[in-house]
Specification:
Mean pLDDT: 84
CATH class of the largest domain: Alpha Beta
CATH topology of the largest domain: Rossmann fold
Structural class: alpha/beta
Number of strands: 5
Shape: globular
Distance between the termini: 11 Å
CATH architecture of the largest domain: 3-Layer(aba) Sandwich
Radius of gyration: 16 Å
Helix content: 10-25%
Order of helices and strands: EHEEEHEH
Length: about 140
């Protein structure tokens, strides 16, 4: 929701089975965006399969009430969107009124769909955080 104050920042946890603290989670903590509590965690029985389901993630603490809140989900990579969208479903289940997403990177495989054409015709300059990827100018 454009203009709605963000009440919580939560990062999507890695489901890859990586040992130790994930560097992205450490970085969001270091920046003061996320904290040990509340946080999104992998739900019991979750696998690394890329499926869309509100059951992929849980909140810690479990009784966290997000009623009427605007939550910004931070994710390190957008591949298919299933993890971030699953996290959004989890937050909505806990009452979040608005869920926004900020992804730090996106991998485009040239051989998939129309990606080669998109890369050739639309990606003409290096990433610039001052340029909106949707409008090509100022962000709305």
């Amino acid at each position: 929701m454009i203009g709605a104050k963000i009440d919580r920042y939560l990062a999507v946890p890695s489901l890859s089975g990586r040992s130790g603290r994930h560097p992205f989670m450490q970085r969001t903590n270091d920046l003061g965006l996320t904290h040990e509590s509340p946080r999104l965690v992998a739900a019991v029985g979750t696998t690394s399969a890329r499926i869309l389901s509100a059951d992929q993630f849980a909140l810690f603490p479990q009784d966290l009430d997000l009623s009427g809140k605007h939550v910004l989900i931070l994710d390190d990579t957008w591949t298919q969107g299933s993890r971030t969208q699953s996290a959004a479903l989890t937050l909505r289940r806990h009452g979040a009124r608005y869920v926004s997403v900020m992804v730090m990177s996106r991998y485009l495989r040239p051989s998939y769909g129309n990606n080669a054409e998109f890369i050739r015709t639309r990606l003409r300059r290096d990433y610039d955080p001052a340029i909106c990827p949707v409008t090509g100018g100022d962000c709305p």
